[in-house]
Specification:
This protein is an alpha/beta fold and 255 residues long. 35% of the residues lie in helices and 17% in strands. The protein has a single domain, classed as Rossmann fold. It has 9 helices and 8 strands. It has an 8-stranded mixed β-sheet, sandwiched between helices. The longest helix has 16 residues. It binds adenosine-5'-diphosphate and magnesium ion. InterPro entries: CobQ/CobB/MinD/ParA_Nub-bd_dom, P-loop_NTPase, ParA/MinD_ATPase.
Length: 255
């Protein structure tokens, strides 16, 4: 099975990370895929659109370093480079944090304008869309690659399938699936699908399978990089390589 997401005529690429449900791992995926691309030498910008519920600053270990956010940019108080914080511990990685104001208008045109402007500075711009509302949708539509994150549980898979179908109808066809929080013995549990069932139900090409890994939870909460040999780190490193177009086998065995 070939699982990659190579694009012809590479230039900077906007990647939107979305899901049909909360808690599936959109922010975790955004942070770790961004770390993975940065580790491969790609200048990477993370843009967090979870207005009022920012978390990427914690996950990247820079919560005390962030001085500005996208809200101040949208209000016209600062320019976008001022709203950008370098992740000092990771070469090539930068973050535009979400505003703390949950009621702020996301203003998709302005956000897409920012992403277009940032293309000249970055190889990859990863947008943690935090979900799909009417305003976030136009941001997703403008992305060259959409990462649909689902867990294998039946509720999450159905919502992922609904969202994926909706996006297809709206001509968002370059979708790839990330199946997250996969436990090695998940087949025993009736509420969970196996990987083939997840892929069949959501109906989009697989880009990666990420195991349930306590390192992911702990390192996310502490803002630390994953230990490189843990199962979660291997899965994200493989996903980053596939985004670059490499044909990398799955990193976990599910029998
Ligand atoms: N593969 C995984 N293994 C273990 N915990 C995970 C995994 N992916 C995400 N988590 C945890 O699940 C919770 C929700 O993840 P998060 O990325 O915030 O979801 P979302 O952004 O979709 O709401 C977090 O506590 C995170 O650490
Ligand atoms: Mg999130």
């Amino acid at each position: 099975m070939r699982i990659s997401a190579r694009r012809a005529n590479f230039m900077s690429q906007i990647i939107a990370v979305t899901a049909g449900k909360g808690g599936t791992g959109k922010s975790t995926t955004s942070a770790n895929v961004a770390r993975g691309l940065a580790a491969l030498g790609k200048r990477t910008l993370l843009v967090e659109l979870d207005f009022g519920l920012r978390c990427l600053d914690i996950m990247l270990g820079i919560k005390d370093k962030v001085k500005h956010d996208i809200g101040e940019y949208l209000e016209g108080k600062i320019d976008i480079l001022t709203a950008t914080t370098k992740v000092e511990t990771v070469e090539n990685l930068y973050l535009v944090c979400a505003t703390r104001n949950p009621f702020m208008d996301i203003n998709p045109e302005k956000i897409m304008g920012v992403c277009e402007e940032m293309r000249q500075h970055f190889d990859y711009i990863i947008i943690d869309t935090a979900g799909v509302g009417s305003s976030v949708f136009s941001v997703i539509k403008a992305a060259e690659l959409i990462l649909m994150v689902t867990t294998p549980d039946t509720v999450c898979v159905r919502d992922g399938a609904i969202l994926s179908d909706f996006l297809y109808v709206k001509n968002c066809t370059n979708q790839r699936l990330i199946i997250n929080k996969v436990s090695q013995n998940f087949k025993d549990e009736e509420i969970l699908y196996d990987l083939d069932e997840v892929m069949d139900s959501v109906g989009i090409q697989l880009l990666g399978v990420v195991p349930e890994d306590n390192n992911i939870k702990v390192c996310g909460a502490k803002g630390m990089p994953l230990p490189p040999t843990c199962p979660g780190a291997k899965a994200y490193a493989a996903i980053a390589r596939r985004i670059l177009g490499e044909d990398v086998p799955l990193t976990i065995n599910i029998n």
